[in-house]
Design a protein that fits this description.
two-stranded antiparallel ribbon; alpha/beta; 15 helices; globular
């Protein structure tokens, strides 16, 4: 997606990209995937329409106006807030890309030096009078740990591969092969809401990870919105602690992510997280839709939230500032921001997401696009060649000449990402893609 902005009298173009993944922004079970994709395009088009009507003194004020207009429209249309703000985030990303090019700096500088005009108190009143440079990293992260998603149906060992599910594209498919190939040591484990089945799956995953990594690993547990009652999830936790094969494994748990379904996750009558005295940190993800969601979650006992570019970058910057503020004032490290993705791939979405994670200081970031796609083979080979030339730290060539993400020792090198205005250090030829008018 390309948008043109007039910044200080000069017209500058910004870009953004995202995979249109059904069943995340709206998990209505009866809604067809094609309809969800149409609605994702609808919210992007509507946000672009609102952006065309906006003039503002700062990027933050511009974003605020588009956000507020989109909120009102989405409520009238009966569209979920998380979905509606995805459209705003696409506009926001093009704006930040254009502004970084105009300012001749990277995203981290835009945010830390507050060249976007971010008013922290407008999102978190307790940060009144504070500025982003007090909380954001002095420099963007130069490397990020790739936290590998282990899905519910992902094969763990060669014994799990069959003629039906084997891919044989030259890249690792099983968990054990991915660990060896990429040097992985951080993981994201999903559960499905059936305690007995979840325990058995976790035992199988734990065996593979400990066999391959020894004790050099850490992981998060994704509740994946599978529970409508928190005591039911606590039952899973209690049984994990009572399980001799899992208790030691779970000593390396970083946090638990969104166990409760989004409709009840912020309901004080149901989300009694604060009452779980001996539990690990729990964060929200899908529930982080409205601007006040994080503050509401913290009151309920949650320990933080996630960042995905599709949920908004300036909002996330304010969230990160609040999390760092709480840790400092309470002399703790309990409050956390998790880096997550939405199956992002290059040549734009992945790079912009990594640039944002580096700017926010999210050291361990879920990465799953690297093992759900055959590198950049979905795009013209010229895209791979360009990525290899300008982002040779992030990408490496495969035997067929296409580029794949270069995870080495379980980490991603972000040197070229941080050297670019907003992650992407190369001109993307739009004529290589099918045009869709917005």
């Amino acid at each position: 997606m390309q948008c043109r902005y007039e910044i200080d009298g000069t017209v500058v173009t910004g870009i953004a990209s995202e995979g249109l993944l059904p069943k995340w922004f709206d998990k209505s079970p009866d809604k067809p995937a094609a309809q969800e994709i149409d609605e994702m395009l609808l919210v992007i088009r509507r946000a672009v329409g609102f952006a065309r009507e906006v003039s503002a003194a700062s990027a933050f004020e511009f974003w605020q106006q588009v956000y507020q207009a989109q909120v009102k429209w989405a409520a009238e249309q009966g569209l979920p807030s998380l979905l509606a703000q995805f459209g705003v985030s696409m506009v926001e990303r093009t704006l930040l890309d254009a502004l970084a090019r105009a300012e001749q700096c990277n995203l981290a500088t835009l945010l830390r030096e507050n060249r976007v005009g971010l008013n922290l108190a407008a999102i978190h009143p307790e940060l009144a009078g504070r500025t982003p440079d007090e909380f954001l990293p002095a420099q963007p992260l130069s490397k990020i740990i790739a936290r590998h998603t282990v899905g519910l149906s992902d094969p763990l060992t060669a014994a799990d591969l069959t003629t039906e599910n084997g891919i044989h594209d030259g890249l690792p498919q099983t968990l054990e092969d991915c660990i060896r190939f990429y040097g992985l040591y951080h993981f994201k484990l999903k559960v499905q809401g059936d305690v007995d089945q979840d325990l058995e799956r976790l035992r199988s995953v734990a065996r593979v990870i400990t066999r391959q990594c020894g004790t050099s690993y850490a992981f998060t547990l994704d509740g994946n919105e599978q529970y409508r009652e928190f005591p039911r999830f606590v039952e899973l936790w209690d049984r994990i602690q009572a399980d001799a094969s899992l208790h030691a494994f779970f000593e390396r748990l970083i946090f638990i992510e969104q166990p409760l379904y989004r409709d009840v996750a912020l309901d004080p009558a149901i989300a009694n997280i604060a009452d779980w005295k001996n539990g690990p940190p729990v964060i929200i993800d899908e529930s982080d839709a409205e601007l006040g969601a994080l503050a509401q979650a913290l009151k309920l006992g949650y320990a933080g939230t996630s960042h995905k570019n599709c949920k908004g970058i300036m909002k996330a910057a304010a969230h990160r500032c609040l999390i760092n503020h709480r840790n400092a004032t309470e002399n703790t490290n309990r409050y956390q921001m998790s880096g997550e993705d939405l199956v992002n791939i290059g040549p734009v979405a992945l790079l912009q997401d990594l640039a944002a994670q580096a700017a926010l200081g999210n050291t361990s970031v879920e990465r799953n696009g690297h093992h759900y796609y055959h590198g950049l083979s979905a795009f013209p080979k010229s895209i791979s060649q360009s990525m290899l030339q300008h982002h040779g730290d992030l990408y490496t060539p495969m035997d067929d000449g296409y580029a794949r993400v270069n995870i080495t020792g379980g980490e991603l090198d972000l040197t070229s990402i941080n050297a670019a205005p907003f992650g992407v250090g190369v001109e993307i030829p739009m004529d290589a893609f099918q045009e869709l008018s917005l």
